[in-house]
Amino acid sequence: MSTKRPEDFSVAILTISDRSFRGEREDRGGPAIAKELEFIGFHIDTQHIVPDEQVMIEQALRMFIAKRIALIVTTGGTGLGPRDVTPEATRNVITREVPGMAEEMRRKGLLQTKYSILSRSVCGICEESLIINLPGNPAGAVDSLQSISGTLVHALSVLTGPTFTHDA
Questions:
Q1: 90 Cβ partners below 8 Å, 6+ apart?
Q2: In the chain, how long is the greatest CA-to-CA distance?
Q3: CA distance to 57, 59, 84, 102, 160, per residue, from 88 (Å)
Q4: Where would I find the H helices in 83-137?
Q5: Exposed (0-12), middle (13-18) or buried (19+): which is 14, by Cβ within 10 Å?
Q6: Nearest to 46 by CA among 61, 24, 28, 25
Q7: pLDDT tens digit string along 73-125?
Q8: Among 93, 117, 125, 147, which is least packed, fewest CB within 10 Å?
Q9: Among positive and negative, which fits the CA dihedral 127, 106, 153, 14?
Q10: Where are the beta strands (DSSP E) in the chain?
């Protein structure tokens, strides 16, 4: 029997921010998430920045899925603002939601701020990719990621197939 490890899975980070895309503000969320994922043991394959445009978010997610990226983590666009469309883009791409992950992120977030319940983050799957929406605030993104980090390898292992053969 073999067990998969974080380094067995490809990872992409997608920052959704108009200002970072235009170069007006440094992307702090993507690097903060990358640092946390690397601490867990994942290797980051790619990082991209797109503006808060639903079509562009969907295109980036579909590109990662086509490249068979196992874990796609987004940061930004999950709030109540008129340009916060990451959850809508994610729902248009995924085939099934994983609501417990988003619920846990909001639940744990309440320990830090009462505003965590305003997050509209979505988690779901498409083919063999798990997509996780995180807040745009770097500290909130890392806290949210930490709240579900203990389940990531298992979720990805189940999603991408068996890790051992079992004789009957």
A1: 57, 61, 74, 122, 124, 131, 133
A2: 60
A3: 10, 13, 9, 14, 25
A4: 86-93, 99-109
A5: buried
A6: 61
A7: 999 999 999 999 999 999 999 999 999 999 999 999 999 999 999 999 999 99
A8: 117
A9: positive
A10: 11-16, 46-50, 71-75, 96-97, 123-126, 129-134
